[in-house]
Design goal:
The protein is an alpha/beta fold. It is about 35% helix and about 25% strand. It has three domains: about 140 residues, FAD/NAD(P)-binding domain, CATH 3.50.50.60; about 160 residues, Protoporphyrinogen oxidase, mitochondrial, domain 2 (Polyamine Oxidase, Chain A, domain 2, Alpha-Beta Complex); about 90 residues, no CATH class. A seven-stranded mixed sheet has the order 8-7-16-17-18-15-19. A five-stranded parallel sheet has the order 10-2-1-14-20, covered by helices on one side.
Length: about 450
């Protein structure tokens, strides 16, 4: 009798888990996708805000996002991708400046001409670096001080690093800033030399809805609202235990949860693997979404260096997305990046509302609280794995020491930033790695390889 198709499980229904489930099903495997939330998408999921359904966190598509654009082709949404030229603001020393072109950059008052030239050279130089691994050997602070100078670092880079990483910026390698610069430059190399950003009509609610339909056609079993408590080996089988549906046996299991969760639910991992997972530093996010009657300033992104402002940046999505998507109103995100144990996670919605709206009133004199139609807060403790010194050498392998068990999460994006496009690229690499491990091992010995898949 011919053996039936292999049964695989994917733990985590974010974009990474969805793409892994899709590709595994295309290989003829029977796939079950477990997700603790009641909806798919993870960080890319949508929610309702004042009668508007849109992304829970801010996202943008770049011209260079080939993996994401490829997925949109598969989903039949490529024709609904809209490109817009956007503008960038900079809030420093209590004033708002436009930084949308070269002339505005040269006029930027906080920096002198030499400082500006060194800042511009730093960005240009970073965009030309191809051997990113050598940047893992030097801290982001020392690298930026060397190339941009002390004054530019103190006035520009340090506030921006602290806004994104807090005091964890001291742990970050130069590869962190390189990845950000490389992504933005790649977008410009692939299109017009302008800041062109894109979005899909209907936002990620539409993308994820279409993706769920694709998984259904693939035959993927979706277990929403199902929290996985344990993944382990028993009598030579890979067993998944959940809080509400008991135990199931699979030929292969891929855990896409953040490192602390993966470490907890996979007790069979070796001491070395657990130590590597435990050593990954994360930043979380407390992000407020506001639906407003009027725009703030018309910049898609306003970077902030003033430390009194309680959020990282102002993301005015309606400066990119047609306001008709929001019923003619304006959508603004106010993100605050913090460590997973930061007290900000304990702030109530009312406390966050008061802190954030008070700051907006100070930043934008024309802003009035009566303009706020809706205010909602998202809290996620593990969003961004920080590229620390020698990061790629410290990561645990995706193929674990437990036969049939793989751990693949956004921390494995070793030479990029955590975004949807890089997440999809990671899924594609992981699926190729699964096949390589399976093909090299005798039957019944899956997962013994110590391969770390990197680009």
């Amino acid at each position: 009798m011919m053996p039936g198709p292999q049964r695989w499980a994917v733990v985590g229904g974010g974009v990474l888990g969805m793409m892994l489930a899709h590709r595994l099903s295309q290989q003829g495997k029977q796939v079950t996708l477990f997700e603790a939330a009641e909806q798919l998408g993870g960080l890319a999921s949508a929610w309702e805000l004042g009668g508007v359904v849109w992304d829970r966190h801010y996202h943008v598509i770049l011209l260079s996002d080939t993996h994401l654009r490829g997925l949109l082709d598969e989903l039949g949404l490529a024709d609904d991708l809209v490109w817009q030229e956007t503008r960038t603001g900079f809030y420093t020393h209590g004033k708002l400046y436009s930084m949308s072109n070269t002339l505005e950059f040269l006029r930027f008052p906080p920096l002198g001409l030499i400082d500006k030239l060194r800042l511009g050279f730093t960005i240009f130089y970073a965009s030309k670096i191809r051997n990113w691994k050598r940047l893992e050997k030097v801290s982001v602070e020392s690298w930026l001080r060397r190339w941009s100078g002390w004054r530019t670092f103190e006035k520009i880079w340090l506030p921006l690093l602290r806004a994104k990483l807090g005091e964890n910026y001291r742990k970050a390698s130069a590869a962190f800033i390189w990845a950000i610069i490389a992504r933005m430059y790649a977008a410009r190399r692939t299109g017009l030399k302008k800041e062109m950003f894109g979005y899909v009509r209907g936002g990620y609610a539409r993308i994820l809805g279409r993706f769920a339909e694709l998984l259904d056609r693939d035959g993927v079993q979706l277990r929403l609202g199902t929290r996985v408590e344990k993944v382990d080996q028993e009598d030579g089988q890979t067993v998944v235990e959940t809080g509400n549906s008991g135990r199931e046996v699979f030929d292969g299991v891929v855990v896409t949860s953040p490192a602390p969760v993966a470490e907890r639910i996979c007790p069979g991992l070796s001491a070395d693997e657990k130590e590597r997972l435990h050593g990954i530093s994360y930043q979380g996010i407390v992000c407020a979404s506001l639906l407003l009657k009027q725009p703030l300033a018309g910049y898609y992104v306003t970077n902030i260096t003033d430390t009194w402002v309680p959020f990282t940046a102002v993301i005015e999505t309606s400066a990119l997305v047609d306001r008709e998507e929001f019923g003619g109103n304006c959508l603004v995100y106010l993100p605050k990046y913090v460590t997973p144990d930061d007290p900000a996670f304990e702030w109530s919605d009312d406390e966050i509302r008061e802190k954030f709206l008070s700051a907006l009133e100070r930043m934008y004199p024309h802003f009035h609280r009566d303009d706020v139609l809706a205010f909602r807060v998202s809290r996620v403790r593990h969003v961004l794995a920080i590229s620390t010194l020698h990061y790629s050498q410290r990561l645990p392998p995706m193929a674990t020491s437990v036969p049939g068990l793989y751990v693949v999460n956004s921390a494995h994006i070793v030479n990029g930033t955590s975004n949807v496009n890089e997440t999809l690229a990671l899924a594609e690499r992981a699926v190729v790695m699964f096949q390589g491990v399976e093909g090299r091992l005798p039957h019944g010995e899956r997962g013994e390889s110590r391969l770390v898949e990197q680009r």
